[in-house]
TrEMBL record:
Any coiled-coil regions, as ranges: none
Organism: Palleronia caenipelagi
Protein name listed in UniProt: Cobalamin biosynthesis protein
InterPro entries: CobE/GbiG_C, CobE/GbiG_C_sf
Recorded superkingdom: Bacteria
One GO term (biological process): cobalamin biosynthetic process
One Pfam family it belongs to: CbiG_C
Record domain CobE/GbiG C-terminal: where: 2-114
């Protein structure tokens, strides 16, 4: 399964999220983010437009170590990249990153792609 993990600010738009995903050049099987962000109207709208399921990741399931080390992400969520951590957690045990965190042009959202064996 290929999962697009997202990190985003509360004001991120559908366009911002779509731009971050487009920067990866990958079409995922599902979208994921930290659980409290998954009900965001922009995130739900993007999932609907792409006809993809959303995988909410509980904060305690986020890997603490990611290739990217954002100081803002570390301070807010205790992980180097919410996008990378969400993608890895949602893709399941043994998942690996295909694409590290990509940043939308407006800098309101990020997206990373992970692949795992989870169906």
């Amino acid at each position: 399964m290929i999962v697009a993990g997202f990190g985003f600010r509360s004001g991120a738009t559908v366009q911002s999220l779509a731009s971050a995903l487009a920067a990866t050049g990958i079409t995922p099987d599902a979208l994921a983010s930290i659980a409290d962000k998954c009900a965001s109207p922009a995130f739900v709208t993007l999932a609907g437009r792409l006809n993809l399921p959303i995988i909410p990741v509980p904060p305690e399931d986020l890997p603490r170590s990611t290739p990217t080390r954002s100081t803002a992400s570390l301070a807010a969520r205790e992980t180097g990249s919410v996008a990378e951590a969400s993608a890895l957690a949602a893709a399941g045990p043994g998942a690996h990153l295909l694409i590290a965190r990509q940043i939308a042009p407006d800098r309101q959202s990020t997206c990373a792609i992970a692949e795992g064996a989870t169906p």
